[in-house]
Amino acid sequence: MRRRLPPVRLAFVLLLAVAASSTAGPRPQPPPPGDATVPGAAPLQPRPGERPAEPPIEVPFEPGAETHDLGPPALTTDAGPLFPLRRIVSRLGGTLSGEDGSVVLALGGTRVIAGPGNPVAIVGREIVELSQAPFADDREGLLVPVDLLRASYGELLDFSFDWSLEAGRLTARRGLAATLPVVVEVVHLQGVTTVVLRFPERFDYELVERREAVEVRPRRDRFQPPIPIPRVADPLVEDVRVAEDRVRIELAPETRAESYVLERPFRLVFDVVRAERSRSVAEEVPGIEPGRPHQGLRTIVIDPGHGGGESGAVGPTGETEKDLTLELARVLRARLAERLPVRVVLTRDEDASLPLDTRSAIANQNKAELFISIHLNSSLGARARGAETYFLSMEASDARAAEVAAAENRGAAELDDPLYDLQLILWDLAQSHHLSASQRVAALIQEELNTTLGLRDRGVKQAPFRVLMGAAMPAVLVELGFLSNPEEEERLKDPAYRSELVEALVRAIGRYRSEVDERAARATAQGGPGGAAEPTP
Amino acid sequence: MSRRAAAAIVLGAVALAAVLALLWFLGREPGAGGPEGPGEQEEGGRLVTFELYFPGEGGYLYPEQRELAAPADPRGRARAIVLAVLDGPTTSGLHAPFPQGVGLFDLYLAADGTAYVDLGDEERPDPPSGGSLAEMMMVYSLVDSLAFNLPEVERVSLLWNGLQRESFSGHLDTSAPLLPAEDLLAEAARRRPKAGG
């Protein structure tokens, strides 16, 4: 039976573990969070001379109750039998990866970390004392005691283990009811809210659809609610509640949900739309003409920062960034429509949360030639003031290289996922081709803000901002002032002041558009390709 | 009763009280399950001077020399640095980058130079919100303090309540490890060799 240790006793156990390992060679370090919990993490590479990592294996869980013969132990010590973990995973399911003999076993959303010579293991966030330390076998990999299996498969997935000394074999039986961890994702994109319920395995369920809610009820298993419980701030979905016996998606009035299933991993997906909605997004957004070639600067996507449950910066009197950026974006859209022959699309036109990747995806879907994310700043001190404009820094983050490497190392399973494909397409590092144009736009915006408003010049800067990474066009993030500064908050609350800010943005965009047009005209005159030529700074 | 017998009874009582106190201490579970907060760093280890970075005037990170009781192992040193950054600066004019209540769940140093830092706050399911400057100061106070003090740390991957977020406050990409940003350090702190080793 697994023993959970109080922290102070745990310290003693750890001290003992350290003492034991100091006599038995170097103590293995648990590997970092694996790909199951840290999707963007760089894959681990063995250093020269080190034992290469065990090849990862991933085995899907089979639903239902059944008995598995796990075979004889690979080694028996005075403290009991030890079984190859790879054999266990290949028969019961799970994802195994590792480094230097230590392994990460992903069971659903929970990590189990164990290493040779280490008499404790990590299950989730708990440290578990084992009856004996695992052993690294050159041929069979990590050998583990049964109590590690009980602490992991038993506690997390309701397996029971029976070690028969007479038969010399270990058997596992899965209980009638499995506990299924549920991951909930809610995304709102152009009038459609998609709720994704992700499960570690396929299971038998019943779908109960009512006007006010949709429920998923497991027929035999039970759900394990996510921690933390997701907060839903969405115009079409009021809440997603996860209990042991059901997931309940509470719909806003006058909406309806359509469901479908995605496999590997098993997901139930619900698209929630307004009940009267029947036309396609392209039909609803004025000006979208699919397939039409772009010439010059024709489409601009404006992104009001934050929204929904994410308020962004909050001023001393409680003014929120999400509300002010939406106001600014709406006015900017109207002014641009008046002054320039461009189509302007907002990433959000309501108080709704929107993932950062979705914002740039909207710009890509609309084939925009310019993406501007509008924000208001905050600092830890109250005195900071002024505007600053950012374009993407690719050097400050290992994110993308790691993401691609991790993607390449994932199995073919995710390649079937349309969202995964979209991510890869968006990733395409297209933004790197537009960095010089982004820098030019940022400079023009900053210049207009400085000269017109006499704002303190905080300058054009670069940062690894997520919202700029997926944009396949020149993209900037503009901070129009410090909401944390009491004086600037007061000014930002004034519609007249906001109008001045918008005017500065309109002038900067107009100048940029002229430069783009001139460039395109020159290219056409020289017989080169037309299209959205980008000026260089 | 002789004086010797009385002294023996007193000594026995004192010993019994000490044993009971020790048993109570070993059996309690202070803050079970919660993150390790500032000021909870382990006692022991030799004192090592680190240069920590805290937000200050002009949107820069300013150095502060701090003597911390740190174990010899890099992970222990990294933990000491993170807890000290969470604790905030002692220099007036500098700011604590994280709100009160944010603690350290776990920290792991991978062989490839990535430090995985799992922060959290049981009262706060999501990372602190704020503007981009506040977010950069928050994130890079940790990234720079770790990377510029420990030769074992080249980049830092931040998690919140065990989860890797696309961004902490809606700007910086925290979905993958971040390299240190020397350009965010105040001029006087730039291009310094790694300290505390």
Net shape of chain B: elongated
Strand content of chain A: 25-35%
Could you state the order of secondary-structure elements of chain B as H and E?
A: HEEHEEHE
**Biggest sheet of chain B: strands, sense, closure?**
3 strands, mixed
- What is the approximate shape of chain A? elongated
Helix content of chain B: 25-40%
Q: How would you classify the quaternary structure?
A: heterodimer
**pLDDT averaged residue by residue of chain A:** 75
Instruction: Report Rg of chain A.
Output: 28 Å
Number of H- or I-type helical stretches of chain B: 3
Instruction: Work out the helicity level of chain A.
Output: 25-40%
Structure annotation, total helices of chain A: 13
Structural class of chain B: alpha+beta
Helices and strands, with pairings:
The complex is a heterodimer of chains A (537) and B (197).
Chain A: H1 7-23, E1 57-59, E2 67-71, E3 75-77, E4 80-84, H2 85-92, E5 94-99, E6 102-107, E7 110-114, E8 120-123, E9 126-129, E10 135-137, E11 141-145, H3 146-157, E12 159-164, E13 169-174, E14 179-181, E15 183-189, E16 192-198, E17 205-209, E18 213-218, E19 222-224, E20 237-242, E21 247-251, E22 255-262, E23 267-274, H4 281-284, E24 299-304, H5 321-339, E25 343-346, H6 356-365, E26 370-377, E27 387-392, H7 399-409, H8 418-427, H9 430-433, H10 435-453, E28 457-463, H11 466-469, E29 475-482, H12 486-492, H13 495-525
Parallel strand pairs in A: 14-19, 24-25, 24-26, 26-29, 27-28
Antiparallel strand pairs in A: 1-5, 2-13, 3-4, 4-11, 5-6, 6-7, 7-8, 8-9, 10-11, 12-13, 15-16, 16-23, 17-18, 18-21, 20-21, 22-23, 27-29
Chain B: H1 3-27, E1 46-56, E2 60-70, H2 74-87, E3 103-109, E4 114-120, H3 132-147, E5 155-160
Parallel strand pairs in B: 4-5
Antiparallel strand pairs in B: 1-2, 3-4
